[in-house]
Design a protein that fits this description.
By secondary structure, the protein is mainly α. It has a domain of 47 residues. Helix content is 61%, strand content 0%. The chain has three helices and no strands. Helix 2 packs antiparallel against helix 3.
Length: 87
C-alpha cells in the first residue's frame, strides 16, 4: 500500500487562516479586512488586534535581544588619546 498525499490531505484539511501561524503582515491585512467588513467592535477584529499586539511585542523583544547580543559580541573600538579634547 503506497502513501497517497492527496488522500492524506483530505483527511487532514488545512487549518483556517486564523488558526495558522501568521506573519505580522498577514495579521495586519486580516485586521484591515475585518475592520472593513465587521467594524471595530466585532469579536474577530478584537481577537486579531490582540494577536497583532502580541506579535508586535514579540518582534520588539526579539529585536532588542538581537541588538544586545550584537553589542556584546562587537569589540569596543580603541580610542586614540590624541582625539580626546581637553578643555
Amino acid at each position: 500500500m503506497s502513501f497517497d498525499r492527496h488522500a492524506a490531505r483530505d483527511l487532514n484539511p488545512p487549518r483556517k487562516l486564523a488558526e495558522r501561524e501568521q506573519t505580522p503582515i498577514d495579521v495586519m491585512l486580516t485586521a484591515a479586512a475585518l475592520l472593513e467588513t465587521h467594524g471595530p467592535q466585532s469579536s474577530e477584529c478584537r481577537a486579531t488586534a490582540e494577536r497583532l499586539r502580541r506579535l508586535s511585542r514579540a518582534l520588539a523583544d526579539a529585536a532588542s535581544a538581537e541588538v544586545r547580543a550584537t553589542a556584546r559580541a562587537a569589540p569596543m573600538p580603541a580610542r586614540d588619546p590624541r582625539s580626546i579634547r581637553h578643555g
